[in-house]
Amino acid sequence: MSQHPAIELVGIDKSFGAVHANKNINLKVEKGTIHGIIGENGAGKSTLMSIIYGFYQADRGEIRIDGKPLDIRDSQTAIAAGIGMVHQHFMLVENFTVLENVMLGAEGGQLLAKGVSGARKELKRLETDYGLDVDPDALIEDLPVGKQQRVEILKALYRSADILILDEPTGVLTPAEADHLFKVLKVLRDQGKTVILITHKLREIMAITDEVSVMRRGEMVATRKTAETTVEELAELMVGRRVLLRVEKGAAKPGKVLLSVKNLTVKDARGVTMVDNVSFDVREGEIVGIAGVAGNGQSELLEAIAGIRKPASGEILLDGQPIANADPARLRALGLAHIPEDRHHMGLVLKFEEYENSVLGYHRDPRYGRGALLDLKAIQADAVEKIEKYDIRPPNPRLKTANFSGGNQQKIVVAREIERDPKALIIGQPTRGVDIGAIEFIHRRIVEMRDAGKALLLVSVELDEIRSLSDRILVMFAGKVVGEKTPDAGEQTLGLMMAGIAA
Amino acid sequence: MSTASVPLPNWITYGLMPLLNLLVAFFISGLVVWWIGEDPLAALKLLIEGSLGRGDAIGFTLFYATSFIFTGLSVAVAFHAGLFNIGSEGQAYLGGLGAALVALALDRYVPWYVTMPFAVIGAALFGAAWAFIPAWLQAKRGSHVVITTIMFNFIGAALMVYLLVNVLIVPGKMAPETRTFLPGGQLPKLDWLMAWFGLKLGPAPFNVSFLIALVMAFLVWVLIWRTKLGYEMRTLGISPSAAIYAGIPYGRTVIIAMLISGGLAGMMALNPVMGASARLQVEFVGGAGFVGIAVSLMGRSHPLGIVLAALLFGILYQGGADLSFEMPNITREMIVVIQGLVILFAGALEYMFRPAMVHLYQRLKRA
């Protein structure tokens, strides 16, 4: 083996118009290592990886694979050079089998039959070599996400990738699935492959990488041996200032029951039961967290409470009043605010200017205009107030919402819902795709709401977030609440419950 | 990321780029004219002179533009709510029935300015009523409004022919049309407005409904950008899921948007029926409903843009008619080709020059 690094970037520079996404990036990734790249959203990680994979061309700089400069103009070149990419959103054909997906784009000739038998043999070998066990004839849509991800990795290996790039690979996995993925990555490394892991989860970096590079605002600010750094140092490097990683909160002082769900069953459009006979209470002054792997009915539960989805049966009470059939406008009037899971599709109209979104759902309030007309001055003044209080940047209510960063978009939603001073607040994925600085801020607001005696229901796929914010944790699996735990319950216990194994 | 998210100043987005698109459309039209053996510059001169060269030419141009403003606004209002109303043609046709019934009922007894408000309401009501059934089907049954409104164009046409041939026809006459309205049922011409500019209107039917169209353009602007209903319509149009989240009632908003859209289309009938021919005739709409789609597209669904686009299409309509008269090689169909090119470049390819424009703008700003 030569002494060259597997991949080396020298002075990579890339601008999109006025946005300088990558500034003079230098990076060396040694062969047979797992190299982590962390950074906040918008720090330029994805751009950098897209340059390596040939989606974009760098304005300046050089990529060296195994010591040799390579001009990567498209992904074919990257694949030929032994680079494989596992995207955050899988690029799989849902109604194809595993084998068909792996072969796609590498069929080997006009007739399928010959390629198929060869591919089957090769796939078997890869599966046994790396412990990536998947049934080659299973349809993708029938596989759980963890296995779908394995197919993505197999796809890359099938194209004889030596360098594997994984973009936020654990976002959709249960803790157990994530652990298995890490084992696979270690096997890959031990067999001489190079792994680049992009993530914003510091814990993963510490658990699995050999080296870690930190990006901030388009620059590569530091590279450390993982063994020689700490979570605190990395967080500080990412954000550029000291960050509180733990949520500081006192003991809860729960009062009377404010939000009550009784025997609630919710079905989706196809009639499949998504929430199955669920009951629980949320009291004033407490945060109830709902843990679970995405897709186990939490979204439907939230939407049913928020009036977006009609429940099939069961009762929902807000302060003693039945609200199971109330529409979102009426629920707002009754004092139920909702931070939706998906700010892009629900919480915001991205093409609107910021101030227009700052009243979405509350636009009929007489405060924002009498009669049929909107009082734009009042709305903008109100928006400016929220912008200042929540430090939304840039502080311009006339800017199109799509042009704000993810964290600031989320702050627009959080400000709108919290500043109405509701009685109860239901929150879905409050910090999905939000950078560390904003996470800290949003978490503090949520705890303040609790301390002000509000009832809060929190759904998140981030187990850490559930554990650090909640006063009680309910675990959902396959539409049912399978148990209740206190936040000091071990991660493993919760993880097993989330996987439906133990109660 | 691409250049799509780089902000450009409004004068480029709404001024320079449409102008550039228009120039390209005219340039390619010129090539087509040259290809069939005519002189493009002479053709352009004829087109401009035929539409803007004389008082009566301008009068005809503005007459056509008036109809296009109404139908363009109609399409735009529905479009803001995420609905593609292809039925402005039929709604305008039915609107004519509303206007004509008012005119026939009142013209003997009162002067035109008393008839006018009732005629406006009558035309809008009939247009809105014709939009109501497709709107209701979309709101409650999910039947796609594009399909239902286009079907209602045919039903409307058949209904109007039946009524004109069997019910409204003047007994003993051959032509399927109502009797001629008395002056109390006509909208007067705007000679005085033309006289301000020292122009003579001549035989052109440019009439008061132009002013009604401008008032409606203003009211549509208020509706879309200054009212709660407009806010709800825009939310629904851009993001139906956000509209559900915000508690905006889908069915009610869809129906109201379509009623307003149909009403605006109906008012278009005032122009030809009460402003020009002073009677209700078959097929008086003459495709203005469909031109409205192009006008709305080109005007970016903004009332000001729609007024400007309607003027452009008025010029193409009137100038084109003159052109095909003077240059027999350039047939009516050729004019349609030119209009098609304008729609293609100014509507469908509106962002074609955007990346280049972004680069140029940034270079200039840096320099």
From TrEMBL, chain B:
Keyword NADP: no
Location in or out of the cell: Cell membrane
Positions in coiled-coil regions: none
Domain of life of the native organism: Bacteria
Transmembrane portions of the chain: 12-37, 57-78, 112-133, 145-169, 204-224, 280-297, 304-321, 333-353
Main location: membrane
Keywords: Cell membrane, Membrane, Transmembrane, Transmembrane helix
Gene Ontology cellular component list: plasma membrane
InterPro entries, per database record: ABC_transp_permease
Membrane topology per record: Multi-pass membrane protein
Molecular function terms from GO: transmembrane transporter activity
Protein's name in the database: ABC transporter permease
Source species of the chain: Rhizobium straminoryzae
